[in-house]
Known about the structure:
Helices cover 32% and strands 32% of the residues. The protein is α+β, with helices and mostly antiparallel strands. The strands form three sheets. Strands 1, 2, 3, 4, 5, 6, 7, 8, 9, 10, 11, 12 and 13 form a 13-stranded mixed β-sheet that branches. Strands 15-18-17 form a three-stranded mixed β-sheet. A two-stranded antiparallel ribbon has the order 14-16. The radius of gyration is 32 Å and the shape is elongated.
Amino acid sequence: MDQSQRKSELLEKYMNNSCTRQEFDELFDLLKQSDNFDDFDSAFKSHWDDAPNTATPKPANWDDIQQNVVMRLWSMRRGRVRIKYFIAILLICSSALFLFNRYQKPEAPVYQTARTTAAKTKVVLLADGTRVTLNANSTLRYPDDFNADKREVYLTGEAYFEVFHDENKPFVIHSGKLLTHVLGTTFTVSAYPQLASPLNVTVLTGKVAVKHQQANALAVLTRGQSATMNQGKTQFELTKLKNPEDAIAWIDDKLIFENADLKQVATVLSNKFGVNIIIKDKQLANQRITAIFQGQGLQSILKAVTKITHTNYTNANNSTYTISTN
């Protein structure tokens, strides 16, 4: 290959973004040493004619730069000098643009926050098509767009997730000390901030990995499996549900307690009705019940719960209830 062909080949490779660092240096050396630029003309003209008119990123206004360069070049007298400087400036500008795109920091995501109050639920549609249903007294913080290599959201409270499958971008939920990692599936996460409230993940479809960051406990769950981390424990309590859809019964205003202890019942009722339910006796708090309630008010549910557990409840004011054996 003669030098004329080599010049044309190197310029063509550079313009197609396929030259190596060594070839790039060789091209610059040829530009600096050459007195005859006709060898570059065919490759340059072909690339210029075929180049799309694309927008360039901010903050550099490359259109203005190009226009300014062209005006200066056409004011020059000698055509070969015009080509020489045009190519040199084009390479410099292209290199600057490449470095700008290569090393600029990604923009910080803009987050939105969705909240629910007592006795209210809300559906939130995320940018990737994921659907999140928030239970009462819950908060979801999520980005406008998922531009990073994973999709991350932040939950306080309880939510049902229907995650859009994307094997290239795992979906991660931060909920207190729980970290839930999925690709695409349906599941619930319960992480209310109350001290006595257990942390729970229940899978309806697919597979979910859940980790408790403080205890360093890890569990991988499939359909119908539930992982619960109780206060003071270092391992998940794993259970298998007969009907996994019971975990989202609250969406239909239904409460299903299956072998749930009384402190769990108190937490659910407190969040649903926006009250504070106190269980005076620790042993009583561990007593378990199985019951289903739908469309019933707080007073009606408390009467049923205390009847099942052979206890009583008192109402000191409109927002505080106490369950005891007295």
